[in-house]
Amino acid sequence: MSQNPPSLRPDLAPAPRIADTRRPGQPTIGMVSLGCPKALVDSERILTRLRAEGYAISPDYKGADAVIVNTCGFLDSAKAESLDAIGEALRENGKVLVTGCLGAEPDYITGAHPKVMAVTGPHQYEAVLDAVHRAVPPSPDPFVDLLPPTGVKLTPRHYSYLKISEGCNHACKFCIIPDMRGRLVSRPVHAVLREAEKLVQAGVKELLVISQDTSAYGLDRRHDRHPWKGAELRSHITDLARELGRLGAWVRLHYVYPYPHVRDLIPLMAEGGVLPYLDIPFQHAHPDTLRRMARPAAAAKTLDEIAAWRAICPDLVLRSTFIVGYPGETEAEFQTLLDWLDEAQLDRVGCFQYENVAGARSNALPDHVAPEVKQDRWDRFMEKAQAISAAKLAAKVGRTIPVIVDEVDADGATCRTQADAPEIDGNLFIDAGFEGLAPGDIVEVEVEEAGEYDLWGRLRG
């Protein structure tokens, strides 16, 4: 089955950025981190624990005494990528330990790669550490092995993912994440805020809030209250977002389901405390398709909700992902999705062609769509989404907007606007007068040119 373009794959995480620093004789571990940003956070936690125990972190295979591969198991194509990564690590290094979502199927891994040294499941930090200890015994030096206050980060210094919960209570028929990661388990609000505060104090300029279902944050805790800076806060997304907005960094919310209480977040965005950006996985628009997915089937009400959000915050940017070719999807149902997209005018859109996932209930549904039909619908969907994106970006020409700098090289500065999350959305490029910029700078830029997904501009004095 053909894969979706990498730029539209939410199961492809940012590439690890690891400095090569070690002392003589120090045991060294490499990390290959696949999967979504939530898995990237798991990788950071594992490496932080290992670093605290005296291990160095290698940026390449040859410099490592062993390699951990943190896998993705969400889609069959992602499983294949994980097996390929394990095979590459075995060829290049030889000592390989496997963890992550695909680790929930150890026989699947060892059947393909019997020489792996250990297999552990998702967020099994202690089991991973035990496996590393067996493969490469620790040798800490308390006088030399210092750990930065933020732990080991795999993202650039100026932004960081902030995981607020694990697991999911939804039962979407195409998804096996609840089987792999369990039901919703939220972190206490004061623990999340403590981590966020440390990150900002260490120089992080943008906090990307992630979970499987950000809107449901704290539901499992019955929105319990915790003291924070002389006040009591609920473990609730509204309280959390409001307090995060007071830390002075950009705050970007991902994986937000359109529950009614999401409307309470919009005034925070209009006031500037939280970025006017919502990442909402709508998946489809036709009520019958949504019912077969076992998802809420109120697309018309969602359009009303979107209109109400934009009335409060006109600059609100909406990002979403959709599935085309879901079992039973008719041409009429697909046309409803296109018409809905026309009306919703979403800013950033990604799309998957449906594929079976081992263990998913959707596999057993009747009337699977032929591959050539799925491809045709994907092409038509992306053509419409691309046209909407191009028109929205063209409307920004002449405006002056804040951007955050991600990279600077000899050719220019690669930046992002408040409408762009790292790795999955577009960029704004500055190709003149950029010499004084550095990653993490937030500057004002006048937009001069727009493409289908990216912008170009010049610095304003």
UniProtKB/TrEMBL annotation:
GO MF term list: protein methylthiotransferase activity
Keywords: 4Fe-4S, Cytoplasm, Iron, Iron-sulfur, Metal-binding, Ribonucleoprotein, Ribosomal protein, S-adenosyl-L-methionine, Transferase
Annotated positions binding [4Fe-4S] cluster 2: 168, 172, 175
Annotated region described as Disordered, given as residue ranges: 1-27
Positions of the MTTase N-terminal domain: 27-137
First-tier enzyme category under EC: transferase
Domain TRAM residues, every copy: 394-461
Subcellular location: Cytoplasm
Required cofactor names: [4Fe-4S] cluster
Domain Radical SAM core span(s) in chain numbering: 154-391
EC id: 2.8.4.4
Binding positions for [4Fe-4S] cluster 1 per the UniProt entry: 36, 72, 101
Pfam families reported for this sequence: Radical_SAM (PF04055), TRAM_2 (PF18693), UPF0004 (PF00919)
TM ranges: none
Catalytic activity: L-aspartate(89)-[ribosomal protein uS12]-hydrogen + (sulfur carrier)-SH + AH2 + 2 S-adenosyl-L-methionine = 3-methylsulfanyl-L-aspartate(89)-[ribosomal protein uS12]-hydrogen + (sulfur carrier)-H + 5'-deoxyadenosine + L-methionine + A + S-adenosyl-L-homocysteine + 2 H(+)
Cofactor note: Binds 2 [4Fe-4S] clusters. One cluster is coordinated with 3 cysteines and an exchangeable S-adenosyl-L-methionine.
GO cellular component terms, semicolon-separated: ribosome
Record-stated family: Belongs to the methylthiotransferase family. RimO subfamily.
Function description: Catalyzes the methylthiolation of an aspartic acid residue of ribosomal protein uS12.
Protein name, per record: Ribosomal protein uS12 methylthiotransferase RimO
Native organism: Ruixingdingia sedimenti
